[in-house]
Design a protein that fits this description.
The chain has about 100 residues and is mostly beta strands. The chain is built from one helix and seven strands, in the order E-E-E-E-E-E-H-E. The chain has a single domain, classed as Beta Barrel (Thrombin, subunit H). This is PilZ domain-containing protein.
Length: about 100
């Protein structure tokens, strides 16, 4: 049973992440809520607890921390929740597929 507190949106949006002042890595963000997102880390550089900055489409940088890493899939929590207008912008311009509770 999924006990998440927020609605998640299945999306397909290109983004980037970076640890500190390091190299930026392109990612495809697949799952988004106002509190965090999920993406594939194909280079396998992230570990649980890493602090990163993230760009989602044309939005960012967004400060976040990795909450889990499993088989190169990464779940992150934003330091500050996305404003609802920003979330709506990403969904509207990023190609949302469906909403999940």
């Amino acid at each position: 049973m999924d006990l998440r507190r927020e609605k998640r949106y299945s999306i397909s949006v290109m983004g980037r992440y970076r640890k500190g002042t390091g190299v930026r890595f392109d990612i495809a963000i697949r799952d988004l809520s106002e509190y965090g997102c999920q993406f594939a880390d194909l280079v396998g550089r992230l570990r649980k607890g890493d602090e990163i900055t993230l760009r989602i489409g044309d939005i960012g940088p967004i400060a976040a921390r990795t909450k889990w890493v499993e088989k190169r899939q990464v779940g992150v929590e934003f330091d500050q929740p996305l404003h609802l207008s920003v979330l709506d912008h990403i969904i509207e311009h990023g190609g949302t597929n469906k909403a999940e509770d």
